[in-house]
Amino acid sequence: MTTTTHVNKAVIPAAGFGTRFLPATKAQAKEMMPIVDKPVIQYIVEEAVAAGIDDILIITGYTKRSIEDHFDRQFELEQALIETGKDKELAEVVGLASLANIHFVRQGERLGLGHAIAVARNHVGDNPFVVMLGDEFMAPRTNLLTEMIQTHSQYGRSVLALQEVAEDEISRYGCAKPERISDRLIQILDIVEKPQPSEAPSNLAVMGRYVFTPEIFDKLEQVQPGVGGEIQLTDAIAMLLADQAVYGVTFDGGRYDTGTVPAYLETIVELALERESLREEFGDFLIEALQRHGRL
Ligand code: G1P
């Protein structure tokens, strides 16, 4: 790995209002909503760390203070845990403050995902970096981010995560026009944000993991508001494509979406059942609840 392609920085945009979860998100960050007993943002930070990232910039805004507190020391709590002999919990809360070097910057005006990433320019500088969207995370077994970083190291170019979706779902995502290089690697020939199914160039949707070359920042400065009147990251990628190749790594499963209420509930149930200490009792409860509601 050369110094020019070594990736150790990640940017997590987490400034959105979380309107799909109102009123829960009126006064708290949607990224702090728990999946079983961990907030979503912690899964994302752990995913970054597992891929070798040690410098994380979280783009926040008003109502997001709790994210900073979560990754800080909390001496009163630590003292209480020491006094009550709760060693496991103590190790867990102390460890959160040393997972990585975590930095915060506020987006100020919320002009869209592309604008949020542009805010990271000063921090990232002239280095390749990862973007991890704040309302989805990948199961550790996927190794997706590691694979994307390896692909970046090989080609020295930007790499996006892509997953096939049903035709009627493509309008929720960025959509790539692919040229297949190998089984899981494609070159992206074109990309469009939230196309109608009839206009979609493929069924390959961009999922919220990206490795970017720093040239994306120039494009983010030039790009005009797109879908929804927002500065779209996808539109900046389309501009980048004209100058340098952009690749996509496809993957099948292991993505946990927390961006909508139904997806959030599904993710909680999935991860609760994956937890050995909960599987039996919670599984029995689910079966009983389904029967009670006439669904089984
Ligand atoms: C964003 C991106 C989109 C991407 C999606 C993945 O959309 O703009 O290109 O496919 O995340 O979740 P959002 O979900 O913020 O509307």
Low-pLDDT stretches: none
As a percent range, the share of helical residues equals 25-40%
- Overall pLDDT: 95
Strand residues, percent:
15-25%
The CATH topology turns out to be: Spore Coat Polysaccharide Biosynthesis Protein SpsA, Chain A
Helix segment count? 11
> How many distinct folded domains?
1
Order of helices and strands: EEEHEHHHEHHEEHEEEEHHEEHH
Give the radius of gyration.
20 Å
| CATH C-level | Alpha Beta
Bound molecules: 1-O-phosphono-alpha-D-glucopyranose
Biggest sheet details: 5 strands, mixed, barrel
Q: What separation lies between the terminal Cα atoms?
A: 53 Å
- Named at the architecture level, the CATH assignment is Alpha-Beta Complex
Taken from the alpha-carbon principal axes, the silhouette is globular
- CATH H-tier superfamily: Spore Coat Polysaccharide Biosynthesis Protein SpsA, Chain A
Oligomer description: single chain
How many beta-strand runs?
A: 13
List the helices and strands and how they pair.
Layout: E1 9-13, E2 34-35, E3 38-39, H1 40-50, E4 55-60, H2 65-70, H3 75-83, H4 87-95, E5 101-106, H5 113-118, H6 121-124, E6 129-132, E7 136-138, H7 144-155, E8 158-164, E9 174-180, E10 185-193, E11 204-212, H8 216-222, H9 233-241, E12 246-250, E13 255-257, H10 261-274, H11 276-292
Parallel strand pairs: 1-4, 1-6, 4-5, 8-12
Antiparallel strand pairs: 2-3, 6-11, 7-13, 8-11, 9-10, 9-11, 10-12
Residues 113, 133, 136, 173-174, 193, 205-208, 233-234, 259 line the site of 1-O-phosphono-alpha-D-glucopyranose (G1P).
